[in-house]
Amino acid sequence: MITNNPEVYKLYENSYPMKFSQGGYHDVLIEVRDLVHQGCELISHPLMGSVKPNETPYRSIILKQGSQTDLQSVEIIESSIQTYEKFKKMKSLPMWSHKILEDFQFVDLKLFESAIESTNLHI
Amino acid sequence: MRLELGKVFIKDMQFSDQTMVKDGTLYINKQELLNAISGDDRIQHIELDIAKPGEATRIMPVKDVIEPRVKVEGPGGIFPGVLNKADVVGSGKTNVLKGAAVVTTGKIVGFQEGIIDMSGIGAEYTPFSKTCNLVITCTPIDKLQQHEHEQAIRFIGLKAANYLGEAARNVNPDETKVYETLPFAEGIKQYPDLPKVAYVYMLQTQGLLHDTYVYGVDAKKIIPTIIYPTEVMDGAILSGNCVSACDKNPTYNHCNNPVIEDLYERHGKDYNFVGVIITNENITLMEKERSSNWTAKLAEFLSLDAVIISEEGFGNPDTDLMMNCKKISAKGIKTVLITDEYAGRDGASQSLADADKAADAVVTAGNANEVIELPAMKKIIGYTEPADTIAGGFAGSLRPDGSIVAELQVITGATSELGFNKLSAAQL
Lengths: 123, 428
Prior knowledge:
Oligomer: heterodimer
Radius of gyration of chain A: 14 Å
Largest sheet of chain A: 3 strands, mixed
Structural class of chain B: alpha/beta
Low-confidence stretches of chain A: none
Number of domains of chain A: 1
């Protein structure tokens, strides 16, 4: 799992193999792309949530180890990066207030937990 | 299953001593309504207001819009499994206060609610500028968690619609329309020469604050299933989400789904409309695969010739949309997709986050990135500060004079992927 959401990391770093990314949304996507090309398979969709990539700074993505490149995962992560770039070009991420950032962290956390629940990866 | 929908036309709404419908006006006893919707400890104060078409009024941030309906005959009540028992609805008689709506507002999450303008250019983009709106503004207790806040407001809105709907119970409708879908085998025999068409109805279900409920069940937990179209008209599907305002389906839109309406209109003429397959839009790829496998399997099982598929939301649901399209097409069944676009402010960018060559018939409900300017309004119901932070707003969206420059995304229902809006694309 890769996340740049401090809430997700704080709550789950000891429960799952998790890497905290110091970067932004784009950096998380790129790290995931690299892992996908190295054989990992996407479990959660990189664009989860209806929050647009130029609105939320947070992203938490779940992958699993694989033995060969999963083409569907490659397609999805590449088109997610393209979508991110399209939105970024339209408008960059605003300087959000602390309250709004907390809301974004909360929504990302809840979507992450929803993904965990449906993959049966319970603690 | 046969439903008579009695429309009681409402042209005005006023607070009064008694809740009733008289000569096209819905009179509301404010205190009685407050008593009917109060009692949730999570809400410290409820404000009620009325917004009418043509007024210089802005409602924001809008969470849901609900149409008041009442079951007059037949099993069950409106919003089954939530406000009423989980009886199978969709048959008998239902009266509706056509022209009235309940609008709930609240700052649930900082960035996901919408705007309804009752006049000016913004009013052109939302269907809810044409309805007389009972607006509910709820102030939560301190530090209430967002999803608790959402749930509290959802129930308050549904209770208000239920209360107002009762006013239509003993009123003779101005117009009655009958909708009927036969059990599948009989339906096939009824129009054996017409193409068998069903509607694949995708529901937003990505997780907390992104949920839709079917008979009270969180739809992310369902496996795609079949529902009679008239069940939807009785409130079997309701919105519990706080996603982009322009393309989320408020509960009002579910009850008035124009895809269902139009398929009924052409049923027996151009198509044999056999029913609705509901499916979800979950987060993980396995769930997307599973649900799209099931929609395709059900489409094949029903020996369909064609389906219409509507999406809710944008981004990862685009993947569900394409999976549904690809797998249903692979069964030899024709597909038409309804979506909206995030194609950049000039409309020139790639519209969706996913694509497939099987998606060769796609209807757009508009470009959510289009920038619009909303004039200042005399009266604001709710809170204006979220203008900068709601999806489609940006720093400086709310100008000092009260006008707003933002993307179409901010307008409730502007690019409805059910087609409950005015935007589309046409070839000139």
